[in-house]
Each structure stands twice: as structure tokens, then as C-alpha cells.
Specification:
Strand order of the largest sheet: 1-2-3-4-5-6-7-8
Largest sheet: 8 strands, mixed
Number of helices: 7
Shape: globular
Oligomer: single chain
Number of strands: 8
Length: 206
Amino acid sequence: LAEIPHLDLIRLATRTPVTLPGRITENPGLLALLSKYGQKKRIYVVTQFNHPGELTEKSTAAVRALREAGCSVRNQTVLLKGVNDDAKVLSRLFRGLTRMGCQPYYVFQCRPAAGVKNHFQVPLLTGVKIVEDAKALQNGLGKTFKYCMSHPVGKLEILGSDTEGRMLFKFHEAKDPKNCGRIFSLPLEPGACWLPEKLTHSGGMQ
């Protein structure tokens, strides 16, 4: 991959710094490999810390080792009911990540997967309030993350709600090029955790 000219970077998405940090800190061969190829192509490691309790000495050491090997480290968090659906909990997570040099990147709405949606999904109207309250408690660098959802139509940034009770979204990525960057709104029930699979004007999309 490092030899392919049109690739701007190499991105590795992994929970290893959280779940098996020794795989990094006790593996000099891996770190040497990352350092070697990082000289040819920028390597980004995207982690998934979901709770401040995961910011242990060992996971912190793993992130430090990746950074010392020349990798840029970013974090994607999933908003999970009963785990991190509290602004103060999220704030501690984001501040801890920023301190360790792991930049908060995205907060994702939990997908409606079987066995998950009835247990861990947070209503969108609740989620946006939690995320914004957590963001308000960060320093400047800690405020750069986006609250998003990976929907069949593309990656949607969740912007907030307007004065008429509609939720505002922006196409961060779009399957249909005509929607690229588009901002739209939808009326949501208070307990709605996801959007319809097909977004149409007849469904209230504006």
C-alpha cells in the first residue's frame, strides 16, 4: 500500500489498543514495521474507546507506542445506552483521549443491529443533547469530533434540533452525489433512535 502513489494515507481501524494493548507494547517488530512504512506513507490508527474506564495504563502505553512509531491516532466512539450516555462520562473520555494524544474523531449513533438496538441505542433527540453537553466541557482540540450515523444513504452528521422540533442532518458522505454536503431536516418522535431506510420528501424530509 505504501508504494501506491494515489493513496494519501493508510488507515488501520482496530480495538487492539483497548482490548489487547500488549499486542502493541510487547511487539517491537510490529512497531518497527509501522515506523518503517510510516516514512513512506502516513499511517493513521483509528481506535474505539467507548468509556473512560478503558483509558488504563496499558491502553495509554499502547497509544503512546503507536505515536512514538510515527502513527497518528484517532478515536471513534459509539454512543451506548447504559455505558456512556451521560455528558460527564463522555467528557471524561474525550478529555482523557486528548491528553493521551488520541484525537476524538467521531461519535457514532448505535446501529439498529439485531440484538443491539433494543439494548444500547439512545434516542436521537437525547443523544444530540448528551454529545453537545460533553463537547461544551472540552478544550478547543477536544471539540473537533462529529456526531454521525452510518445510514444506507451515506454518512449523516447529526447537527441538532430546530425550534419546531425537527432534527437537522448534513450529508457528510453521500451515495448520491447530488446530496453531497446537503443539510436537511426530519420530524422525529421523542424515542426515535434511527431514520427510515429510505429518506423521501413524502416522509417529511425537507
